Amino acid sequence: MSFIDLIKTRRNTKSFKPDPISMDQLYEWLEAGTLAPNHRMTEPWEVLIVGDETRQKLNHKTNFHQAPLVLAVLSKDGRHDFETKENALATACFIQNFQLAAWAEEGVCTFWSSMGSSERNRDILGVPDNYDVIGLFGVGYPVEHVEPKTRIPIQQKVKQLP
C-alpha cells in the first residue's frame, strides 16, 4: 500500500474486536511516534497505559467502545506559552505517527476522546499540573472498516498569497 493510501484508509473506529494488542507491537508503534517533528527536540509527549481499575474510574459512556487497550497521551508544558503550544502540536504529530504505524503494521485503529482534559479525569489519571491531556485512545482491531466522511475539497482551503 502506498503511503497516500495508508493515510486515506486509516480511520478512527467505534467498534473493536476483543483481540489483545501485543505490548511489543505497541512499543514499536509508540517508538515510531517519537520520530515526529518537535520544536527544539523537546519530546514533550508522555504515554499512560490505562489499566482496568483506572478505566472503570474514568467511566467513559461507551467504555472506549470495548477497545482492548486504552492510552492517555500527555504533552508537557513549555517554558513559555508559545513553547507549550508547540509541544501540543508536536504531541499531535506523535499521535498521528503512532496511529499510522499501528494501521500500517497490523490494521489497528484508535478511538480518540478528549475526556481526559476534565479536572476529574486528570485527577484519576494522576496528570501533573505541568501537562495537558491531548487525548485518551481506545486501541484495537476494528470490527469493520469505516468509510471516510466527506471532506471539504482542499482547493477551498488553500489561499495563495502575493
Automatic annotation (TrEMBL):
Database matches in Pfam families: Nitroreductase
Domain Nitroreductase: 57-141
Molecular-function GO terms, alphabetical: oxidoreductase activity
Protein name: Nitroreductase
Family assignment from sequence similarity: Belongs to the nitroreductase family.
UniProt superkingdom: Bacteria
Organism: Gracilibacillus halophilus YIM-C55.5
Claim: Oxidoreductase is one of the keywords in the record: yes
Record's keyword annotation contains NADP: yes
Cofactor: FMN
Keywords recorded for this protein, A-Z: Flavoprotein, FMN, NAD, NADP, Oxidoreductase
